[in-house]
Every structure is written in C-alpha cells, then in structure tokens.
Recover the amino acids of this structure.
C-alpha cells in the first residue's frame, strides 16, 4: 500500500483569516471598546504597534445546554491517605458549583492579539479628515492607464492596425505569398502570349499562384495584435503636517507631552489615509525654526513668545516645498495660549491671508496645567484670536486639554465623522 | 545486511525521502506484526500556522465559514503565543484516505512517532471501531465538507450573510442535541446526501411556479381530529434529536435553513463517536506508536539517542498528574488509555491469580494483539472501562471516589478507594464519567400545542439534582424559539419525584421569521 506524502507548507496559510475577520466584525463594538481602553493606559506609540487587548467574552460565547449543581461523583487519581468513609472539607463555598462553572469563569475575558493594522483600523475607525472632499484627494487612490506593449488577445477596439499589418506582411513574405503585381504581370503576359506551350505554362503558374494566395491569406488571425494597457496607480495624494509648538518658558514638560501625544495621533491618522505623509516640526519662542523630532520635543529652548514667527516659518516652507495643489496641508498648533499682545494682529493676518487658504485643516490645541480644569481656563490671547477667525468661517478647530486621558477624546472630537457623509460601518 | 538493519535516519533532520522510509518501516510493523487494518494513508506536512488554522475549524481541512471558528482561532493563537499551550504534534482526520498532518518543526523522531501514532494507531481505530463504522462515512466526509462549505457560501450569497449566521448560530447552540444516539436508522452516506441536496434544489428551481403562491390555503383541519397520541406519533415524539425535529417539523423554516440544520446535524453526528472513544482512541494510538517504535529500535533502525528522545516525548504524553497537583485537570486520556492497553497485554500474556479471577475470558490467552484488536473494534470508553479496568491499575493510579452532595453540609464523602471493597464501585463510577448518555443533559421534545399557540414543549429529565445553567439555557431556548417561530417552553422534571423544578419560556424574535 503506497503511502501518500504531500507537502502542504506552500499552500496559502491563514485559512482562518476570513473567520477571524467575521469574528472581529461581530465583536467590533467589544473590541473597539477594548482598544480605546487599552490606548488610554498605554503610550500611544506602543498602542499603535498593535498588540493584545482583552475582549470580554460575554456576548461572544456560544450557549449550550449545560448542567450544573446537583450531587457529583468523581473518580480521581493520586490517593495518599484517604480511606473509605472519610469526610473531606469542601475547598470553598462554591464547591457545589462544579468545574464546569470554573471553566466558564476563565473564559470571561480573553486576550486577543490584533495586528497593527487591525488595531489602528479599529482605533481610528470612526474618524475622518475634515473637509476631505475639498481637493478630492480622498483615501481612494485613482488608477491611471498606461500602454504596455501588445498582446494576442483583447477587445476589437484595441486592435493595433499597423502592428497587425506589419506582422501579416512579414508572414506573407516569409511564406512567399505572391504579390498582386506579379500576378498582374503574368496575366498581362498571358494576354499577349500566342505561343501555345508558353500559354499553358503561364496558366499553370497563374493557377498555382492564385491557389497559393488563397492558402496564404492577406491577414491571418495569428497576425492580429492588440494594444495592451495596464493600470498603474497614479501618484498618490500626499499630505504634510505642520507641527507648530510653542516652546517658550511657560510651556511645561507636561504640556509638551500632551502636545506630543496629539501630534502622534495625527501622524498615525494621516499615515492611514495617505501613502506619503511628511511632518514638519516647527518650534518657536520669539523666533521660529524647523527642527527634527528629537529637538522638537526635548530640545531646551526658552524665551519670549511670538506666534507669528512660527506661522511665518510655516508659510515660507509651504511656499518653497509644498505646493498646495499637490499636497494636503494640515497644521496642528499646540501652545499654552500666551502671546505677546502686539503679535496678535500679525498672526491673524498671516493666518487669514496665507495659511488658512491653503490648509485643509488647522487644529489648535491649547494645553493646560496638569490637574487644571479645562473649562476653568480663562480664554487666552491666542484662543480669543482663533475664536474670532473661526467665527468668520475658517477651517479651524480648537480644544483645550489638561490631562493625557483627554487627548484621545479631543482628537476624536476634532476628527469625528460628521454629517451626511456618515457611513455605516460595514 | 538486510534492509531492516539500516538506520531510518540519523540526528533530527528529515526530508521527504526519510519520511517515506519511516512510513514504510512503520507500515511493515503495523500491518505484518501487529495485524492492523488501516485506510490508505495520506500524510501532509504543514506549518505551525496551518496547524493553528486546522485547530480552529475543529481539525477539518475545509469547513464552512463562521465567526465562531475565528473566535477559536484567536483564542488558540493567543494562548499559543503566550506559551500556555503547545501545538499538538499532529491532527488526524477520520476519512479515507486517512489524512494526518505533520508539523514541519518536528524532528525526525517526532515525525516517526506521529506517523506511528496517527497514520496507524488512530487510522486502525477509525476503520475498525463499531461506533465509527456505524455513524461515520469515512469515504464521504471530505466531499461532504466541501459540499457544506459551498452550500453555506451559496446561501450567504442568496439570502445574506446575516440570515445564514443567525441560522448557524442557532444550529450550533443545539449541536450537542442534534445527534441520534441509537442506531436503527440507516448509516450515513454523505455522498448520497450531497447529491440529494443538489437534486432537491434543482427540482425546486425547475418546479417553481409562481401561481402556487396565490392558491388559498383553505381552513385548517379541525384540531379535534388529531388526538394527542396520534399527533405525538405523527411528529415522532418524544424526540431527543432537536435539530432533526426542527429540520423536519419547524413550520416556517425556509428550505435552505432546513438544509443548514441538516448539515450541522450530520457534522455533529460525525464527531459523536470521537467524543465517546477518547480514552480508547488515544490509548490505541499511543499503544501502537509505542509498539512500532520499540520494534524499530529493536531492529536497529533507530539509534539509541533517537529512541531516548522518543521515550521522553512518550513519557510526557502519558503523564498523569495527581489530583492535588496544580497541573491536574482530570484523567489524561492518553495516560489512562495507554495504561489500560498495556495492562490488557499483560493480563493476556502474563496473568496473575487476581487477573484470572477478574478477567477469566482473556487472562492467559496469549494473543495480546488479537485480544486488543477485538476490544478496539467492539467497545467504547464507558464499556471499555467498565469491563477492562483492573484492580492492579486502580492501585497503580491510586484512584478514589468522591461523592459530593450539596445537601450534606459536613463535606465531601470518600465513597470508595482502591481496596477490595472499592474496586467495583470505583470502576462503575469511572465508567460513568465517560458515559455520554450521562454527561449530556437529557432533553427531549415532548409535545407541540397544536390546539393552542403551537408552543413547542421540551422536557429536561433532571438526574442527580443537576439542573441546567440558567443563563445558557435562556439563550439556547431563544435560538430554538427563533427557529421554531412560536413559543418554546422547557420544564425541568426530577426523575425520582416527577416534580417540576423549573420552567422556562422563550418567545421568538422577528429575525428568524423574516430570514
């Protein structure tokens, strides 16, 4: 009897993928809750690595008729000292509930490993970039069409006449199909010819050529070539995010931390929507400079505050590197709201004239002291300025944040899917 | 030098030629020396990920899609990653050809063990045990699963995934009550089953005439005519196969829903023998791999080192923690089964007086394999234990019997231990632990209130005071009501006093009616 040995290792794995997705879909609300909860307690960076979440199995378990209680008899191995008739104390009060119930308990929640993508998807599921339609640079990539040589099959509309004819020509030459001129010449000769023998010869030759012409068609199906097109992804929409942060003396580490978390969320969020996301870090005191991430968050700097310097820097960078026609421009500004009184006018002009017209969305986050209450914060100079701008219809959102745990809700609030575009989760 | 003196392999590495050699060597021992009778074998090498896949769809190579399998996958994967659980070395499928999965990570020794265990041990058991012969159709199962998968996918396309999911959820909840426990019906022919479904659908499509939809149904028959007895007889009551009952009589199910219930029922039935023969099945496979590999070592085809590696894995597999060990979670079927097989071999070849007294039929008979093959063919766990558990083994495991009566305030009674007075009681109680008729709650459809509100009436016969868990029962009944589309009630009745202990009623939700 032959034993059949098969190597299945190359078969596509993840046969469970579909089932897993069904499970996720079904458990979506539960998993989403778990994701949000876990993202509050962990560092955003770790959170976005994906990972484990505890999913309450309640509502996800499959009920069966189960018995519980009653008298129980069991045979166990490993008796060391008991004799018949011994009475053993019950291990605990729930002794009568039985092992079945115990097993149920351990399944109350189970830790579920989500891939990074699954995690971020669930995390950002109901968020949307505001005003996305403005430049039609939605998350969907459009595909372009490009010529890609010739093929032997295709739709009649795509027949390439010149290529077909040239192949037919080559074939006719190769197979020595008589050219019509040759035939005409022979026929002309036949007309003129009187010599009987020559006439028969000519007629035979003409017949031969004619039959050869029939055998070798002018265009054969094998000559036909179609133009081939392939779809290529068009250059993808790009996004740039400007992180503007006030690092003047009044910004505490706590405030920077809040700002950082907000920027990270924004970064991840943009990353999901666009293939290319650039980040520009601009920090400012009374002067602004473009810096790398490390310096941005941790570099020591101190001084007075001129918000307009950052706005000016952003404006210049946009002009030199990010053409608004090609880029989706986002800006997120974090500040404690202090600004020198004289600067308000300048900042306002920069925003209305140069920046807001080219940005998709401008988020202003006012960070407050730890343990402070956001609604108790008096309106700062910047806040008042931005509120005025927003009232005149600028694409600008503003929130105040004091605690880490507020970051996600605020972010959520800012980017929440709104209005009629609301899609049903499917 | 004869071929049998050559080493099968050296070290831990293997390739496909090695596997082939191992298979041939195992087969020689299994068939010629042990006299095993097996289905043709198909051995498939897979990765760990594929093994996880296979786990989560109840070990089947193909299965219809359902979220609960995804849940199992997630659950298994999580515990595998945390290292709580090792992967099984093998999965074997009761089909013809018998498919055994081997993980690529296994060493050559492990592959030998797995091949001997699965491809010969389990395979022989599947082919010869009476329960499997009676209830499973090894030739048809793979085709049937393929059909089930296609059918469910087709239904999803036609009737929407949600409707199919509701039906499957409900069917799964009732799966353990979708089994015929008593033979008498003709055995399963899954290929014919698949054809029948196809034909039925084709017929429905060809015979569809919209006109019939408009024919008035006429007045219902007078209920008085149908007296209780006749009605119960017509409905085939009492009926403990709830899925069967619904499939045949639920008034408002769509044909495709009936077919899905049927598929779930067939699959439940297919797995029914496995749940009744865990100890025997694993015992057989373990005994067979132990015999085969020891023999290969004797023949000089395995090095001492490889044999030691085998012994280590083998010992891990048959390890039985004691009741006060934190690792204890009931009897290990491998340990118990293997110990019993070895014990039977000893009784047959080298009995002492006690064995002669307890097992007069087999003691000293001499042909261990013959006796074992006969036992493998004709018993299930319960009857196997109640007939072949020897006093020596009970002493070996130091078994004792606890009786826990919640009414008894003082504690748990040690009812019997491994002594002269206790052997028979121990054995009876242990066998009872494996009696499926005893483990599953006994629930039957007893009647349908045709005169009134068409309520479906179920009855749970309470044994030893164990009632149904309330939360689960409510949810299962909800599923049942959704399928039945009228009210469903369940009473729990005590066996001894005939007293009604509890009553549940469930009302159908709309979804099933719309679906």
């Amino acid at each position: 009897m032959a034993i059949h040995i098969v190597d299945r290792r190359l078969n596509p794995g993840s046969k469970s993928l579909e089932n897993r997705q069904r499970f996720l879909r079904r458990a979506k609300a539960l998993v989403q809750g778990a994701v949000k909860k876990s993202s509050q307690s962990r560092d955003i960076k770790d959170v976005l690595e994906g990972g484990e979440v505890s999913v309450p199995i309640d509502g996800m378990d499959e009920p069966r008729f189960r018995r519980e209680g009653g008298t129980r008899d069991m045979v166990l191995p490993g008796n060391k000292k008991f004799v018949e008739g011994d009475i053993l104390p019950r291990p605990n009060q729930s002794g009568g509930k039985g092992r079945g119930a115990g097993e149920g308990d351990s399944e109350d929640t189970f830790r579920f490993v989500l891939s990074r993508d699954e995690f971020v998807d669930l995390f950002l599921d109901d968020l949307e970039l505001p005003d996305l339609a403005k430049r039609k640079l939605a998350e969907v990539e459009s595909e372009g069409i490009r010529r890609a040589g010739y093929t032997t099959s295709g739709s009649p509309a795509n027949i390439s006449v010149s290529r077909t004819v040239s192949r037919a020509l080559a074939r006719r030459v190769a197979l020595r199909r008589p050219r019509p001129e040759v035939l005409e010449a022979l026929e002309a000769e036949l007309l003129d010819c009187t010599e009987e023998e020559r006439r028969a010869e000519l007629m035979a030759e003409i017949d031969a050529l004619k039959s050869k012409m029939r055998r070798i068609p002018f265009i054969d199906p094998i000559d036909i070539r179609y133009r081939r097109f392939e779809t290529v992804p068009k250059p993808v929409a790009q996004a740039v995010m400007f992180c503007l942060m006030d690092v003047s003396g009044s910004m505490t580490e706590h405030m920077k931390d809040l700002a950082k978390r907000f920027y990270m969320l924004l970064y991840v969020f943009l990353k999901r929507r666009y293939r290319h996301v650039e980040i520009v870090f601009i920090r400012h005191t009374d002067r602004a400079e473009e810096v790398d991430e490390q310096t941005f968050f941790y570099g020591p700097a101190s001084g007075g505050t001129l918000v307009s310097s950052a706005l000016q820097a952003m404006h210049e960078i946009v002009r030199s590197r990010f053409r608004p026609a090609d880029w989706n421009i986002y800006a997120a500004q974090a500040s404690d709201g202090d600004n020198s009184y004289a600067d308000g006018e300048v900042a306002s002009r920069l925003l209305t004239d140069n920046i807001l017209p080219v940005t998709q969305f401008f988020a202003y986050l006012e960070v407050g002291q730890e343990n402070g209450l956001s609604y108790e914060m008096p309106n700062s100079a910047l806040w008042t300025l931005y509120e005025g701008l927003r009232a005149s219809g600028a694409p600008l959102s503003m929130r105040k944040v004091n605690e880490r745990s507020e970051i996600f809700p605020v972010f959520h609030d800012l980017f929440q899917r709104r209005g009629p575009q609301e899609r049903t989760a499917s | 030098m004869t071929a049998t003196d050559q080493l099968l392999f050296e070290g831990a590495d293997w390739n496909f030629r090695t596997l082939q050699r191992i298979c041939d060597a195992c087969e020689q021992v299994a068939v010629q020396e042990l006299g095993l009778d097996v289905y043709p074998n198909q051995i498939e090498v897979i990765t760990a990920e594929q093994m996880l896949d296979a786990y989560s769809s109840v070990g089947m190579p193909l299965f219809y899609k359902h979220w609960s399998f995804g849940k199992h996958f997630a659950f298994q994967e999580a515990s595998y990653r945390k290292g709580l659980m090792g992967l099984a070395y093998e999965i074997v499928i009761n089909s013809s050809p018998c498919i055994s999965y081997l993980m690529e990570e296994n060493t050559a020794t492990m592959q030998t063990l797995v091949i001997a265990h699965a491809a010969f041990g389990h395979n022989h058991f599947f082919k010869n045990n009476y329960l499997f012969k009676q209830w499973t159709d090894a030739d048809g199962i793979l085709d049937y699963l393929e059909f089930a998968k296609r059918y469910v996918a087709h239904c999803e396309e036609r009737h929407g995934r949600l409707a199919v999911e509701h039906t499957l959820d409900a069917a799964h909840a009732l799966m353990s009550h979708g089994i015929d426990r008593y033979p008498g019906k003709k055995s399963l022919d899954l290929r014919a089953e698949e054809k029948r479904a196809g034909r039925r659908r084709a017929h429905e499509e060809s015979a569809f005439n919209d006109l019939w939809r408009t024919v008035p149904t006429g007045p219902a028959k007078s209920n008085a005519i149908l007296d209780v007895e006749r009605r119960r007889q017509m409905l085939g009551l009492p009926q403990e196969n709830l899925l069967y009952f619904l499939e045949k009589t639920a008034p408002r199910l769509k044909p495709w829903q009936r077919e899905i219930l049927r598929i779930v029922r067939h699959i439940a039935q297919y797995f029914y023998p496995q749940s009744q023969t865990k100890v025997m099945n694993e015992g057989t496979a373990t005994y067979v791999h132990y015999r085969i590999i020891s023999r290969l070592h004797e023949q000089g085809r395995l090095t001492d080192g490889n044999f030691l590696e085998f012994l280590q894995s083998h010992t891990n597999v048959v390890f039985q923690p004691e009741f006060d060990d934190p690792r204890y979670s009931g009897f290990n079927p491998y340990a118990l089964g293997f110990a019993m097989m070895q014990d039977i071999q000893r009784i047959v070849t080298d009995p002492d007086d006690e064995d002669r007294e307890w097992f007069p039929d087999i003691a000293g008979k001499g042909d261990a394999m013959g006796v074992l093959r006969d036992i493998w063919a004709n018993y299930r766990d319960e009857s196997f234990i109640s007939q072949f558990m020897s006093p020596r083994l009970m002493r070996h495991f130091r078994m004792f019997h606890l009786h826990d009566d919640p009414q008894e305030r003082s504690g748990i009674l040690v009812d019997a231990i491994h002594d002269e007075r206790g052997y028979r009681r121990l054995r009876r109680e242990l066998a009872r632990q494996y009696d499926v008729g005893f483990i599953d709650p006994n629930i039957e459809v007893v009647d349908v209130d045709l005169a009134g509100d068409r309520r479906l009436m179920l009855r749970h016969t309470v044994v030893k005071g164990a009632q149904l868990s309330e939360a689960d029962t409510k949810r299962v009944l909800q599923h049942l009501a959704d399928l039945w589309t009228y009210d469903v009630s369940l009473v729990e009745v005590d066996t001894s006093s005939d007293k009604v202990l509890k009553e549940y009623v469930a009302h159908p939700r709309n979804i099933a009616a719309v679906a």
